[in-house]
Amino acid sequence: MTNFPDNEPIQDYRRPTTTGGDHRPRPPAPRSSPLGEGEYRHQPVMCGEVVETLRTVPDGVMVDATVGGGGHALALLDAHPGLDLVGLDRDPSALDAARRRLGPHQGRVTLSHARFDALDEVLDGLGHGAVSGCVFDLGVSSPQLDRPDRGFSYRHRGPLDMRMDPTAGCTAADVVNTAAEPALAAMLARNADEPHARRIARAIVARRPFSTTTELAAAVAAAVPARARRRGHPARRTFQAIRIEVNEELGMLDAALARALGRLVPSGRCAVLSYHSGEDRIVKARFRREAGEVPPPRPGLPPPPGAHAAVRLLWRGARTPSPDEADANPRAASARLRAVERIPEAA
Protein backbone atom coordinates (compact mmCIF):
# COMPACT_ATOMS: atom_id res chain seq x y z
CA MET A 1 0.00 0.00 0.00
CA THR A 2 1.01 3.62 -0.50
CA ASN A 3 2.62 5.50 2.34
CA PHE A 4 1.32 8.90 3.31
CA PRO A 5 4.13 11.18 4.53
CA ASP A 6 3.09 14.65 5.63
CA ASN A 7 4.12 16.22 2.34
CA GLU A 8 2.14 13.81 0.15
CA PRO A 9 -1.11 15.23 -1.23
CA ILE A 10 -4.30 13.39 -0.38
CA GLN A 11 -5.90 11.81 -3.42
CA ASP A 12 -9.05 13.64 -4.46
CA TYR A 13 -11.89 11.54 -5.88
CA ARG A 14 -14.68 13.90 -4.86
CA ARG A 15 -17.91 14.05 -6.76
CA PRO A 16 -19.62 17.40 -7.28
CA THR A 17 -22.16 18.21 -4.62
CA THR A 18 -25.62 19.43 -5.58
CA THR A 19 -28.30 21.12 -3.54
CA GLY A 20 -30.39 19.21 -2.88
CA GLY A 21 -30.41 -4.59 19.91
CA ASP A 22 -29.11 -6.11 22.23
CA HIS A 23 -26.96 -5.52 25.31
CA ARG A 24 -24.97 -8.73 25.43
CA PRO A 25 -21.51 -8.57 27.05
CA ARG A 26 -19.10 -6.66 24.85
CA PRO A 27 -15.45 -7.35 24.07
CA PRO A 28 -13.04 -4.78 25.41
CA ALA A 29 -12.18 -1.99 22.99
CA PRO A 30 -8.74 -2.27 21.39
CA ARG A 31 -6.11 0.28 22.23
CA SER A 32 -6.38 3.70 20.68
CA SER A 33 -3.42 6.05 20.44
CA PRO A 34 -3.77 9.74 21.30
CA LEU A 35 -3.77 12.25 18.48
CA GLY A 36 -1.28 14.55 20.12
CA GLU A 37 -1.60 18.21 19.19
CA GLY A 38 -4.57 19.14 17.03
CA GLU A 39 -8.27 19.82 17.19
CA TYR A 40 -9.73 16.65 15.71
CA ARG A 41 -10.33 14.28 18.62
CA HIS A 42 -12.98 11.62 18.28
CA GLN A 43 -13.81 8.51 20.31
CA PRO A 44 -14.86 5.71 17.94
CA VAL A 45 -18.27 4.26 18.77
CA MET A 46 -18.65 0.52 19.53
CA CYS A 47 -15.03 0.05 18.56
CA GLY A 48 -14.65 -3.32 20.27
CA GLU A 49 -17.76 -4.68 18.58
CA VAL A 50 -16.65 -3.45 15.14
CA VAL A 51 -13.23 -5.07 15.55
CA GLU A 52 -14.68 -8.38 16.72
CA THR A 53 -17.08 -8.39 13.79
CA LEU A 54 -14.28 -7.88 11.25
CA ARG A 55 -11.48 -9.78 12.99
CA THR A 56 -11.99 -13.00 11.01
CA VAL A 57 -12.05 -11.56 7.49
CA PRO A 58 -9.42 -12.90 5.05
CA ASP A 59 -6.14 -11.09 4.60
CA GLY A 60 -6.34 -8.31 2.04
CA VAL A 61 -7.70 -4.77 1.80
CA MET A 62 -10.06 -3.24 4.36
CA VAL A 63 -12.02 -0.13 3.34
CA ASP A 64 -12.90 2.41 6.01
CA ALA A 65 -15.44 4.40 4.02
CA THR A 66 -15.70 7.12 6.70
CA VAL A 67 -12.24 7.10 8.26
CA GLY A 68 -12.74 10.24 10.37
CA GLY A 69 -9.96 10.57 12.91
CA GLY A 70 -8.86 6.97 12.31
CA GLY A 71 -10.16 5.38 15.52
CA HIS A 72 -11.81 2.32 14.00
CA ALA A 73 -9.04 2.07 11.40
CA LEU A 74 -6.28 1.98 14.00
CA ALA A 75 -8.05 -0.68 16.04
CA LEU A 76 -8.62 -2.85 12.96
CA LEU A 77 -4.99 -2.57 11.84
CA ASP A 78 -3.81 -3.42 15.36
CA ALA A 79 -6.07 -6.48 15.49
CA HIS A 80 -5.47 -7.85 11.98
CA PRO A 81 -1.85 -7.75 10.73
CA GLY A 82 -2.92 -9.25 7.39
CA LEU A 83 -4.94 -6.19 6.39
CA ASP A 84 -4.00 -3.06 4.50
CA LEU A 85 -6.41 -0.17 4.73
CA VAL A 86 -7.93 2.31 2.30
CA GLY A 87 -9.56 5.18 4.18
CA LEU A 88 -12.02 7.63 2.64
CA ASP A 89 -13.32 10.88 4.07
CA ARG A 90 -14.69 14.08 2.63
CA ASP A 91 -13.39 16.23 5.52
CA PRO A 92 -9.75 17.36 5.09
CA SER A 93 -9.41 17.95 8.85
CA ALA A 94 -10.40 14.36 9.52
CA LEU A 95 -7.83 13.08 7.02
CA ASP A 96 -5.10 15.15 8.66
CA ALA A 97 -6.02 13.60 12.02
CA ALA A 98 -6.12 10.10 10.53
CA ARG A 99 -2.62 10.59 9.12
CA ARG A 100 -1.29 11.32 12.57
CA ARG A 101 -3.24 8.60 14.33
CA LEU A 102 -2.38 5.88 11.81
CA GLY A 103 1.31 6.79 11.71
CA PRO A 104 2.41 3.48 13.32
CA HIS A 105 0.87 1.65 10.34
CA GLN A 106 1.63 4.13 7.57
CA GLY A 107 3.09 1.49 5.26
CA ARG A 108 -0.29 -0.28 5.26
CA VAL A 109 -2.55 2.74 4.72
CA THR A 110 -3.78 4.91 1.84
CA LEU A 111 -6.05 7.87 2.52
CA SER A 112 -8.28 9.50 -0.10
CA HIS A 113 -10.27 12.73 -0.02
CA ALA A 114 -13.55 11.26 -1.26
CA ARG A 115 -17.20 10.72 -0.53
CA PHE A 116 -18.03 7.12 0.21
CA ASP A 117 -20.14 6.81 -2.92
CA ALA A 118 -16.87 7.23 -4.86
CA LEU A 119 -15.63 3.94 -3.40
CA ASP A 120 -15.37 2.23 -6.78
CA GLU A 121 -13.36 5.07 -8.31
CA VAL A 122 -10.96 5.16 -5.38
CA LEU A 123 -10.32 1.41 -5.40
CA ASP A 124 -10.03 1.23 -9.19
CA GLY A 125 -7.56 4.11 -9.14
CA LEU A 126 -5.42 2.24 -6.63
CA GLY A 127 -5.57 -1.00 -8.63
CA HIS A 128 -7.67 -2.88 -6.06
CA GLY A 129 -10.41 -5.28 -7.05
CA ALA A 130 -12.18 -7.28 -4.37
CA VAL A 131 -11.80 -6.29 -0.71
CA SER A 132 -11.81 -8.27 2.52
CA GLY A 133 -14.01 -5.93 4.47
CA CYS A 134 -15.63 -2.54 4.72
CA VAL A 135 -16.81 -0.37 7.60
CA PHE A 136 -19.09 2.68 7.50
CA ASP A 137 -19.45 4.98 10.53
CA LEU A 138 -22.23 7.28 9.36
CA GLY A 139 -23.35 10.72 10.45
CA VAL A 140 -21.51 13.68 11.90
CA SER A 141 -18.50 13.39 14.22
CA SER A 142 -17.93 15.03 17.58
CA PRO A 143 -15.07 17.22 16.27
CA GLN A 144 -17.36 18.59 13.58
CA LEU A 145 -20.11 19.29 16.11
CA ASP A 146 -17.75 20.86 18.62
CA ARG A 147 -16.23 23.44 16.26
CA PRO A 148 -18.61 26.42 15.97
CA ASP A 149 -16.98 27.55 12.72
CA ARG A 150 -18.24 24.39 10.99
CA GLY A 151 -21.85 25.40 11.64
CA PHE A 152 -23.20 22.02 12.76
CA SER A 153 -24.15 22.96 16.32
CA TYR A 154 -27.41 24.61 17.34
CA ARG A 155 -25.87 25.48 20.72
CA HIS A 156 -22.90 27.57 19.58
CA ARG A 157 -22.92 30.60 17.31
CA GLY A 158 -21.29 30.03 13.97
CA PRO A 159 -21.89 30.39 10.24
CA LEU A 160 -24.68 28.34 8.70
CA ASP A 161 -22.36 25.98 6.87
CA MET A 162 -22.73 22.27 7.86
CA ARG A 163 -20.64 20.96 4.95
CA MET A 164 -18.61 17.89 5.82
CA ASP A 165 -16.33 18.92 2.98
CA PRO A 166 -15.90 22.67 3.53
CA THR A 167 -14.25 23.06 0.13
CA ALA A 168 -17.26 22.17 -2.02
CA GLY A 169 -21.02 22.27 -2.35
CA CYS A 170 -23.92 24.29 -1.03
CA THR A 171 -24.17 25.43 2.57
CA ALA A 172 -26.94 25.26 5.14
CA ALA A 173 -27.55 28.95 4.52
CA ASP A 174 -28.20 28.18 0.85
CA VAL A 175 -30.83 25.61 1.84
CA VAL A 176 -32.74 27.55 4.51
CA ASN A 177 -32.65 30.88 2.68
CA THR A 178 -33.74 29.68 -0.78
CA ALA A 179 -35.89 26.54 -0.48
CA ALA A 180 -39.64 26.94 -0.80
CA GLU A 181 -41.76 26.36 2.29
CA PRO A 182 -43.23 23.02 1.11
CA ALA A 183 -39.75 21.76 0.23
CA LEU A 184 -38.42 22.74 3.66
CA ALA A 185 -41.30 20.97 5.42
CA ALA A 186 -40.79 17.84 3.32
CA MET A 187 -37.05 17.88 4.06
CA LEU A 188 -37.62 18.13 7.83
CA ALA A 189 -40.07 15.22 7.77
CA ARG A 190 -37.97 13.06 5.45
CA ASN A 191 -34.56 13.58 7.03
CA ALA A 192 -35.45 13.86 10.70
CA ASP A 193 -39.04 12.68 11.27
CA GLU A 194 -39.75 16.18 12.61
CA PRO A 195 -43.36 16.22 13.92
CA HIS A 196 -43.61 20.02 13.62
CA ALA A 197 -42.13 20.24 10.13
CA ARG A 198 -44.78 22.54 8.68
CA ARG A 199 -44.72 24.99 11.57
CA ILE A 200 -40.93 25.18 11.49
CA ALA A 201 -40.80 25.61 7.71
CA ARG A 202 -43.34 28.43 7.92
CA ALA A 203 -41.31 30.18 10.62
CA ILE A 204 -38.06 29.83 8.66
CA VAL A 205 -39.57 31.38 5.55
CA ALA A 206 -41.12 34.22 7.56
CA ARG A 207 -37.88 35.14 9.35
CA ARG A 208 -35.19 34.49 6.76
CA PRO A 209 -32.54 35.30 5.68
CA PHE A 210 -30.40 33.61 8.34
CA SER A 211 -26.63 33.79 8.58
CA THR A 212 -25.80 32.12 11.91
CA THR A 213 -26.66 28.89 13.68
CA THR A 214 -28.06 30.59 16.76
CA GLU A 215 -30.43 32.74 14.71
CA LEU A 216 -31.87 29.64 13.07
CA ALA A 217 -32.05 27.71 16.35
CA ALA A 218 -33.94 30.57 18.00
CA ALA A 219 -36.44 30.73 15.15
CA VAL A 220 -37.09 26.99 15.37
CA ALA A 221 -37.49 27.10 19.15
CA ALA A 222 -40.04 29.90 18.87
CA ALA A 223 -42.01 27.97 16.26
CA VAL A 224 -42.65 24.73 18.16
CA PRO A 225 -45.21 24.23 20.96
CA ALA A 226 -44.02 24.85 24.52
CA ARG A 227 -44.28 21.17 25.42
CA ALA A 228 -41.77 20.31 22.64
CA ARG A 229 -39.19 22.63 24.19
CA ARG A 230 -39.10 20.47 27.31
CA ARG A 231 -37.88 17.36 25.46
CA GLY A 232 -34.35 18.31 24.51
CA HIS A 233 -33.36 21.18 22.29
CA PRO A 234 -36.20 21.88 19.81
CA ALA A 235 -33.76 22.61 16.96
CA ARG A 236 -32.00 19.24 17.13
CA ARG A 237 -34.07 17.56 14.44
CA THR A 238 -34.06 20.62 12.19
CA PHE A 239 -30.28 20.84 12.24
CA GLN A 240 -30.03 17.10 11.56
CA ALA A 241 -32.35 17.38 8.58
CA ILE A 242 -30.51 20.35 7.09
CA ARG A 243 -27.12 18.70 7.57
CA ILE A 244 -28.33 15.54 5.84
CA GLU A 245 -29.66 17.61 2.94
CA VAL A 246 -26.49 19.69 2.56
CA ASN A 247 -24.29 16.60 2.50
CA GLU A 248 -26.67 14.33 0.55
CA GLU A 249 -26.13 11.68 3.20
CA LEU A 250 -29.20 9.54 2.58
CA GLY A 251 -29.17 9.93 -1.19
CA MET A 252 -25.73 8.39 -1.61
CA LEU A 253 -25.91 5.69 1.07
CA ASP A 254 -27.75 2.84 -0.66
CA ALA A 255 -25.61 2.98 -3.80
CA ALA A 256 -22.43 3.11 -1.71
CA LEU A 257 -23.50 0.04 0.29
CA ALA A 258 -24.29 -1.85 -2.91
CA ARG A 259 -20.83 -1.06 -4.29
CA ALA A 260 -19.12 -2.11 -1.08
CA LEU A 261 -21.00 -5.40 -0.86
CA GLY A 262 -20.31 -6.12 -4.51
CA ARG A 263 -16.56 -5.93 -3.88
CA LEU A 264 -16.41 -8.31 -0.92
CA VAL A 265 -14.42 -11.51 -1.29
CA PRO A 266 -16.03 -14.75 -0.03
CA SER A 267 -16.20 -14.55 3.79
CA GLY A 268 -15.54 -10.81 3.56
CA ARG A 269 -17.67 -8.66 5.86
CA CYS A 270 -19.28 -5.23 5.91
CA ALA A 271 -20.20 -3.45 9.16
CA VAL A 272 -22.25 -0.26 9.36
CA LEU A 273 -22.87 2.08 12.29
CA SER A 274 -25.92 4.31 11.84
CA TYR A 275 -27.31 6.94 14.18
CA HIS A 276 -30.86 7.74 13.15
CA SER A 277 -33.83 5.94 11.69
CA GLY A 278 -33.38 7.21 8.13
CA GLU A 279 -29.88 5.78 7.87
CA ASP A 280 -30.79 2.55 9.63
CA ARG A 281 -33.78 1.90 7.37
CA ILE A 282 -31.55 2.16 4.28
CA VAL A 283 -28.89 -0.13 5.77
CA LYS A 284 -31.46 -2.69 6.91
CA ALA A 285 -33.21 -2.74 3.55
CA ARG A 286 -29.99 -3.10 1.54
CA PHE A 287 -28.62 -5.87 3.78
CA ARG A 288 -31.91 -7.80 3.68
CA ARG A 289 -32.13 -7.42 -0.10
CA GLU A 290 -28.58 -8.72 -0.57
CA ALA A 291 -29.41 -11.60 1.81
CA GLY A 292 -32.24 -12.65 -0.50
CA GLU A 293 -34.99 -11.39 1.80
CA VAL A 294 -36.90 -9.47 -0.87
CA PRO A 295 -40.15 -8.04 0.50
CA PRO A 296 -43.42 -8.98 -1.23
CA PRO A 297 -44.83 -6.51 -3.75
CA ARG A 298 -47.90 -6.04 -1.53
CA PRO A 299 -48.87 -7.22 1.96
CA GLY A 300 -50.25 -10.75 1.89
CA LEU A 301 -48.47 -11.71 -1.32
CA PRO A 302 -45.40 -13.98 -1.48
CA PRO A 303 -42.03 -12.43 -2.32
CA PRO A 304 -41.02 -12.47 -5.97
CA PRO A 305 -39.35 -15.69 -7.13
CA GLY A 306 -35.66 -16.06 -7.77
CA ALA A 307 -34.33 -13.96 -4.88
CA HIS A 308 -30.58 -14.62 -4.67
CA ALA A 309 -28.65 -14.43 -1.41
CA ALA A 310 -25.21 -12.89 -1.89
CA VAL A 311 -24.59 -12.29 1.83
CA ARG A 312 -25.80 -13.57 5.17
CA LEU A 313 -26.86 -11.43 8.10
CA LEU A 314 -24.43 -11.93 10.97
CA TRP A 315 -27.24 -11.31 13.48
CA ARG A 316 -30.88 -10.29 13.45
CA GLY A 317 -31.73 -6.72 14.24
CA ALA A 318 -29.19 -4.12 15.24
CA ARG A 319 -26.70 -4.20 18.09
CA THR A 320 -26.43 -1.17 20.32
CA PRO A 321 -23.77 0.30 22.62
CA SER A 322 -23.38 -1.13 26.11
CA PRO A 323 -24.92 0.94 28.92
CA ASP A 324 -21.41 1.82 30.10
CA GLU A 325 -20.43 3.20 26.70
CA ALA A 326 -23.66 5.15 26.34
CA ASP A 327 -23.12 6.67 29.79
CA ALA A 328 -19.51 7.58 29.04
CA ASN A 329 -20.27 8.94 25.55
CA PRO A 330 -23.87 10.17 25.24
CA ARG A 331 -23.44 10.76 21.52
CA ALA A 332 -22.97 7.01 21.09
CA ALA A 333 -26.34 6.16 22.63
CA SER A 334 -28.25 6.21 19.34
CA ALA A 335 -25.79 3.99 17.44
CA ARG A 336 -27.02 0.86 15.66
CA LEU A 337 -24.57 -1.74 14.33
CA ARG A 338 -25.49 -4.13 11.50
CA ALA A 339 -23.18 -6.47 9.60
CA VAL A 340 -23.19 -9.07 6.82
CA GLU A 341 -20.78 -11.65 5.41
CA ARG A 342 -20.29 -12.52 1.75
CA ILE A 343 -21.43 -16.04 0.87
CA PRO A 344 -19.15 -18.07 -1.43
CA GLU A 345 -20.68 -18.60 -4.87
CA ALA A 346 -22.20 -22.03 -5.39
CA ALA A 347 -20.08 -24.30 -7.60
Report on this model:
The chain is globular, with a radius of gyration of 20 Å. The N terminus is likely disordered. The protein contains 13 helices and eight strands. It has 347 residues and is of the alpha/beta class. It has two domains: 221 residues, 3-Layer(aba) Sandwich (Rossmann fold), CATH 3.40.50; 98 residues, Orthogonal Bundle (DNA polymerase, domain 1), CATH 1.10.150. Strands 1-4-3-2-5-6-8-7 form an eight-stranded mixed beta sheet, with helices on both faces. α7 packs across α8 and α7 crosses α10.
So, CATH architecture of the largest domain?
A: 3-Layer(aba) Sandwich
Helix content range: 25-40%
Total beta-strand segments: 8
What's the CATH topology label of the largest domain? Rossmann fold
When the domains are counted, the total is 2
Largest sheet: 8 strands, mixed
Shape: globular
Radius of gyration: 20 Å
Strand order of the largest sheet: 1-4-3-2-5-6-8-7
Average pLDDT over all residues: 86
Number of helices: 13
